[in-house]
């Protein structure tokens, strides 16, 4: 199949039309065109549920997790190219309302069928497809996983780097680390020192009422020059008066999502009182939410996660809004496997991503990643946007098969 696909690739490349009349809109690569029977059509879609052991257990409000369950979407085109993507929904509905099981249901019963009879000739068709998925309300993670698999398949089919399809460029991205709540301040300081030694460009600390000033000051005193930020995951209320003034004294890079997960208005009121920039994460569910947040003054920085806003096209628009309104921008992580990780890195190729990402090397999360080679620093504290013609070429299929605990294939064409 690989040889067949290579032959086909050469044929496709010969037919790629450099359309001089195409007007790239907002930096998109609109000159990649595959026409006629060379156009991308999906032959089959396979949904897999995989079970990946985590390197270190993570503590959540639901207890301690030692593994991550993930849906992998795999598409095969009629020409044999493979597109792959990852759904970032978690096991429990604690970050957004979606879970692995709701995402599976939405994909299987409402989304995957939309690939039937679809013909993709240009990136504009990918964008139309992305917009069509908006007919399914909410469920952004399920939508994103299918949408990103189609972009990935298009990159493989046309042998175009994903970041070029998105309108980005090869670059190095600075990487920050996110530290969870540790058993003691001493342990947290150890982790922070190690992160500095490993080259991380900023440190983020998870905070909650009563567990905020002490850990932040402990890191600040140890590493005075290290950019430092706090992520509150919606743990505070506006009325937590005393803490805001003290947090504002710490010269933090930003305070991430202090108030309710679905709020913009209260954040705007809080931002007016603080010198420290607020960053919105959970509140940003769509590209338009970036515009709304900017207009309201709800934050000065956006943590963008492609899974949470519905995929590459919606992320692209969110990026453009952030640039337009002068907001800082970075890409967050959702404990992705290498598949989602490489997609996040491709997205960071866009010029508006001007702050360190949370997307780190594979080894921080997994014993063994499903991509080979795994994602590693290009130099300490940096990841390089790679020339990747779709992520499937990097997947370790043997390992992916081993981790797969459930799968379902939908055939469209033979
Ligand atoms: Mg966050």
Description:
The protein is α/β, with parallel strands linked by helices and 414 residues long. It has two domains: 2-166 and 395-411, 2-Layer Sandwich (Enolase-like, domain 1), CATH 3.30.390.10; 172-391, Alpha-Beta Barrel (TIM Barrel). Helices cover 35% and strands 19% of the residues. The protein is built from 14 helices and 13 strands. The chain has helices at residues 2-15, 100-111, 123-133, 140-158, 162-166, 185-198, 213-222, 241-248, 265-273, 287-296, 306-309, 312-324, 338-347, 397-403, and strands at residues 42-60, 63-77, 82-87, 172-174, 177-179, 203-206, 228-231, 255-256, 278-280, 301-304, 328-331, 382-384, 404-411. Strands 5-6-7-8-9-10-11 form a seven-stranded parallel beta sheet. It has a four-stranded antiparallel beta sheet with strand order 3-2-1-13, sandwiched between helices. The protein has a two-stranded antiparallel sheet with strand order 4-12. Strand 8 (255-256), helix 9 and strand 9 (278-280) form a beta-alpha-beta unit. It is globular. It starts with a helix and ends with a strand. Mean pLDDT is 91; it is low at 1-26. It binds magnesium ion. Residues 185-277 form the Mandelate racemase/muconate lactonizing enzyme C-terminal domain. Its EC number is 4.2.1.113.
């Amino acid at each position: 199949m690989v040889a067949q696909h290579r032959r086909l690739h050469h044929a496709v490349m010969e037919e790629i039309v450099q359309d001089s009349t195409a007007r790239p809109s907002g930096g998109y690569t609109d000159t990649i065109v595959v026409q006629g029977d060379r156009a991308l059509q999906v032959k089959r879609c396979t949904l897999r549920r995989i079970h990946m052991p985590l390197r270190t257990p993570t503590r959540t409000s639901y207890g301690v997790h030692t593994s991550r369950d993930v849906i992998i979407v795999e598409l095969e085109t009629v020409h044999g190219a493979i597109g792959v993507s990852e759904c970032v929904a978690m096991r429990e509905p604690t970050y957004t309302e979606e879970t692995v099981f709701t995402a599976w249901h939405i994909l299987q019963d409402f989304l995957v069928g939309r690939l039937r009879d679809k013909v993709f000739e240009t990136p504009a068709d990918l964008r139309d497809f992305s917009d069509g998925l908006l007919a399914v309300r909410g469920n952004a993670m399920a939508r994103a996983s299918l949408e990103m698999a189609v972009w990935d398949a298009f990159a493989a089919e046309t042998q175009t780097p994903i970041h070029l399809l998105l309108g980005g460029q090869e670059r190095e991205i600075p990487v920050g680390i996110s530290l969870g709540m540790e058993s003691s301040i001493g342990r947290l300081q150890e982790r922070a020192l190690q992160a500095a030694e490993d080259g991380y460009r900023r440190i983020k600390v998870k905070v909650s009422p009563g567990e905020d000033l002490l850990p932040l000051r402990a890191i600040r005193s140890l590493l005075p020059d290290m950019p430092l930020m706090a992520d509150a995951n919606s743990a505070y209320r506006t009325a937590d008066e005393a803490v805001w003034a003290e947090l504002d004294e710490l010269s933090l890079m930003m305070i991430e999502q202090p108030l309710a997960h679905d709020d913009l208005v209260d954040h705007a009121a809080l931002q007016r009182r603080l010198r420290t920039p607020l960053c919105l994460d959970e509140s940003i569910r769509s590209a338009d939410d970036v515009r709304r947040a900017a207009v309201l003054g709800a934050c000065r920085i956006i943590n963008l996660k492609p899974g949470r806003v519905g995929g590459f096209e919606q992320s692209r628009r969110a990026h453009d809004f952030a640039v337009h309104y002068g907001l800082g921008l970075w890409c967050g992580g959702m404990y992705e496997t290498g598949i989602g990780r490489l997609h996040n890195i491709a997205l960071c190729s866009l010029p508006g991503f001007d702050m360190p990402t949370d997307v780190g090397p594979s080894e921080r999360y997994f014993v063994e990643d499903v991509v080979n080679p795994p994602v590693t620093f290009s130099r300490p504290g940096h990841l390089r946007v790679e020339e990747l013609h779709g992520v499937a070429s990097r997947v370790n299929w043997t390992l992916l098969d081993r981790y797969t605990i459930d799968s379902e294939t939908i055939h469209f064409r033979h």
